[in-house]
Write a structure and sequence with these properties.
Elements: H1 9-17, H2 21-43, H3 46-62, H4 73-131, H5 135-146, H6 151-158, H7 162-183, H8 186-195
Helix pairs in contact: 1-2, 2-3, 2-4, 3-4, 4-7, 4-8, 5-7, 6-7, 7-8
């Protein structure tokens, strides 16, 4: 697509190199649409295609005396447009990866924080419930459920039968399940009921 005017491409580029805005405008009017369409096909964004048009022509204008070195203007503009569009695509891909990484990291961190708060609150509610148990049930619960002793070991330590320890534990767990249902929301209750099963 040669420039149809009284000037040749070479004449116009010499004029642009000398700072002639009218010559620059002729080049702009002749190639603007082609650059826009080409970059739009690559970028699928009107806004980004306009950005490419502005940057390509800005580069031509800022070349100064180097503009006269351009041998084939259309091929040069196509190359500039393609390269700039590829730069933008690479930037967008990088932005997307970085954004995804930070979003995923934030989501994981956010979820971990929520879970920690949830477990912290649940633990405190549970401990408050344990403090309300009758003394013998509280002792059995702490030995079996917190220290991890078996019924036989707890029975031996407390000089009780294993059946008595088991009964105290059953009563303690029943009380704590009811207590947690009354003092937590459904989500917390489900978590703690699993812990107390």
């Amino acid at each position: 697509m040669a420039i149809k005017s009284l000037y040749t491409e070479s004449d116009l580029l010499h004029e642009v190199a000398a700072g002639n805005q009218s010559a620059f405008r002729i080049i702009y009017d002749q190639y603007r649409r082609k650059i826009y369409t080409f970059s739009l096909k690559m970028l699928k964004s009107e806004l980004l295609a306009e950005e490419v048009v502005q940057e390509v022509f800005l580069k031509i204008w800022q070349m100064g005396e180097d503009a006269v070195k351009i041998v084939q203007l259309e091929a040069y503009l196509v190359t500039l447009t393609r390269n700039r569009s590829l730069d933008i695509l690479r930037r967008l891909a990088l932005d997307d990866r970085v954004s995804k990484k930070f979003t995923d990291g934030w989501q994981e961190s956010h979820n971990e924080t929520e879970e920690q708060i949830l477990l912290y609150d649940t633990k405190h509610i549970l401990l408050a419930g344990v403090e309300l148990l009758p003394p013998q049930q509280k002792l059995v619960y702490k030995l079996c459920h917190i220290e991890g002793l078996k019924y036989e070991e707890t029975a031996e330590r407390l000089s009780l039968s294993s059946l008595t320890v088991k009964k105290h534990m059953q009563l303690a767990l029943q009380f704590l399940r009811d207590y947690m249902r009354k003092h937590t929301d459904v989500g917390l209750a489900l978590i703690i009921l699993r812990l107390l099963s």
